Amino acid sequence: MPVITCIDDLKRLHRRRTPRMFYDYAESGSWTEQTFRENTSDFSEVRLRQRVAVDMTNRSLASRMIGQEVAMPVALAPVGLTGMQRADGEIKAARAAEKFGVPFTLSTMSICSIEDVAAHTEKPFWFQLYTMKDQDYLRRLIQRAKDAKCSALVITLDLQILGQRHKDLKNGLSAPPKLTPATIANLMTKWTWGIEMLGTKRRQFGNIVGHVSGVKDTSQLGSWTAEQFDPKLDWAKIAEIKEMWGGKVILKGILDAEDAVKAAEVGADAIIVSNHGGRQLDGALSTIRMLDPILQAVGDRIEVHLDSGIRTGQDVLKAIAMGAKGTYIGRAYIHGLGAMGEAGVTAALEVIAKEMDISMALCGKRDILDVGRDILLIPEGFSGRWQS
What we know:
Layout: H1 7-17, H2 20-26, H3 34-41, E1 47-48, E2 63-65, E3 68-70, E4 74-76, H4 82-85, H5 89-100, E5 105-106, H6 114-119, E6 126-130, H7 135-147, E7 152-156, H8 166-171, H9 181-187, H10 191-198, H11 218-228, H12 235-245, E8 249-254, H13 257-266, E9 270-273, H14 287-298, E10 303-306, H15 313-322, E11 326-329, H16 331-362, E12 376-377
Parallel strand pairs: 4-11, 5-6, 6-7, 7-8, 8-9, 9-10, 10-11
Antiparallel strand pairs: 1-12, 2-3
């Protein structure tokens, strides 16, 4: 068993053990990848204030996200194709999250279906919804999430049109992978991955194949999916989906203060300050830079969460100290899953928790609920000074 001290340790193992197209799918952004890089690097510009001679005993990271008790203010973000990083990946990640005490969010574009994950877990998980043109499929998908007792619906708003990710195009990304000479050569070096994948029946998009008219296998899936993301999605449709769901709703993909205000007006329970991990609009600001203007715009009217760029417990601590009520990790846990399966997801969560706990203590705080901006040193003009 390798010694894991940080997420980068898991990332190196992930790259070594997983086929290139799936590793690249996780570790890439759109176009020049500027936003993808700055999501992470901008966290380093925010510094922590060290405090000494304070009682550091009896520390707690326990918190709440949309009223749900969590072991720490971290959820597993929805990630498509998770079941291609490791066989039955969504089930393994959901189990690890459940045991650790944090929410797991299942993607519409998962390999394991809603029903599969529900059958292998004991507690409700969250379901992420991509809005599709096929209204019958959309209604049935929402009902399936209800039937599985999902406790929150996470509606993704920033994928009306698919951003271009060069690596995915060059790798010919597909699930299961197309057997080209280059793919075969790469797969021959990933024996453990291949053996596990042969041992599972879950190798297609479980929430789509068999649930959509005319889509019975992956050969028909690409054309259907490319046509289905709804470019007409607007706030009225979001309100309709919220009404259709009838439970807790989180809106993912907010990166502008005006949109945050509209999300509050539509009655969402929370928003996720997110730029899709730098995979959509390249050149957009990082989420940690946009967090403060959004918080100032909505105040306490809506719960504000953050994703994109979190790789350490210190990143989580900084986001919470700035005012976020919760955070999400995507790539961090995917690196763990690709590296060591369910145990790797647990390792990623343990790394994040340990870093957050120790850093919080060294900033003079014992309870994450007491953490505020007083532990931060934020550069002047951090959120930018832009011409109107």
